[in-house]
Amino acid sequence: MADTKREIERKYESANSELPDLTGVAGVAAVVDQGVAHLDATYYDTGDERLAASSVTLRRRTGGSDAGWHLKFPVAPHVRDEIHAPLSDTLPDDLAALVRSRVRDSELLPVVRLRSERDVRHLLDADGLLLAEVSLDTVRAERLTGRGGTAQWTEIEVELADGGDPALLDKAEKRLRKAGVRPSASSSKLARALEETAPGKRRRTAPAREPVTAADHVLAYARTQRDAIVELDPAVRRDAEDAVHSMRVATRRLRSTFKSFGEILDRTATDPVGDELKWLAGELGLDRDREVLTDRLKAALDEVPDNLVRGPVAERLHSWSSAEHRGARGRLLGVLDSRRYLTLLDTLDALLADPPLLKAAGKAPRKPIAKAVRKDFRKVSGLIRRAADLEPGTDRDAALHEARKKTKRTRYAAEAAEPVLGKPAKTMVKSMKALQKLLGEHQDSVMARQALRELSAVAHAAGESAFTYGLLHEREEQRAARAEAELPGFWEEIKDGATDL
């Protein structure tokens, strides 16, 4: 079973074979020698080094106190999430799943071997509690692919203890700099090993050129969303907070981009990909929609006086929520391991590498991009007017839901347009986000009432009172009515925003 920890550390270049004295660092009462550990790590990657390109490291290490498999994902500068699994001859299935969105069908190969002599010190406070671990690593690197090169260096690592104060790292760095030690130019041992053991001169990645054409801007936004899907995949598999929602939003943004900018990217090529993105968003939504409904119904129940709660309403809501979560969770993991999903990722890569450009793609960006945003806005306007002409009920609910979807699409188009159109696009994003929130309140009420009717029927069949479900249903109707009443005035305030585009 894999365990996860947040690793906060800094690396330094060192030409010396000894650690600088850190006894005087503020807050450090003692520096305790932990001896020397002998570490032997083999790093795995695809032949084209996809993991390294994403600053992800996968290794099998023996020696030291944490022998086993380690998978590290970047979080922020000097911060990584490390997932550890027990030592085994082959890569554990749960770790293999976490790199699948990047690796796909490619084979994971041993690419680098690092053997290190690690001289370890513990920095302790006055109570003997661990503040940080400092090590002097003498590293020997051997490339295991191609013609295979070797390298050797010495570096210092300072790793913060779990729950430690990051300010300690600044204090330790100040002392290290005074001793002539400088921050490492490489983000990790693997990055340095790949650089220094590469056969011949390692090719450097050319800096990305600034967007010039309409297609440049649209594709830059689209690639950002594609990257987000790939990068969020491991977090979704680990059930990290907000990961499902964020991945769903990236999926919707990408699909909306293909639809909104159909005069730049040929929709005969992008529509089939958009259909697959719609499928993925739907699968992600099964779990997300449950979360939203559960939070809403729990909050509504908390507002009901105790004397109006009849029967085990909270217990039934909890059971319903848990069952829905288990079913949706298992289904979603199956989706992420499916051939259909991996094919979608491959198709996105191919489409964005060789995009289906139309005539407007090569034009200066302002006119075609502004035109696309205005077109989406007009669709929202038409749907709002249509909903206003309908009587309250199912048809109006459906029209407002459709307006909400088009509002999201307009918001995403305006996001893509911000680098080109500036403030008018930013204003449009803000307006559409507010409108989306109002229409979302209405749609959430529609879905909550549907769930309450289902829960009420189950409770009634079990011989329980349905009174509280009916009370909650009535309150949800009132919330929807308030949103509908607020909409006309709200729309009047924002509908002129498109004139500046």
Describe this structure in words.
The protein has 501 residues and is an alpha+beta fold. It folds into 2 domains: 3-197, Hypothetical Protein Pfu-838710-001 (Beta Barrel); 214-498, CHAD domain (Alpha solenoid), CATH 1.40.20.10. The chain has 14 helices and 9 strands. The chain has helices at 50-53, 93-98, 100-103, 167-178, 189-196, 214-237, 243-260, 267-302, 313-336, 339-353, 366-389, 394-421, 423-461, 467-494; strands spanning 3-13, 30-45, 57-62, 68-76, 79-85, 109-124, 130-143, 150-160, 182-183. It has an 8-stranded antiparallel beta barrel. A hairpin with a 5-residue loop joins strand 3 and strand 4 (68-76). Helix 6 (214-237) packs across helix 12. The longest helix is centred in the C-terminal third of the chain and has 39 residues, at 423-461. The chain is globular. It starts with a strand and ends in a 7-residue tail after the last helix.
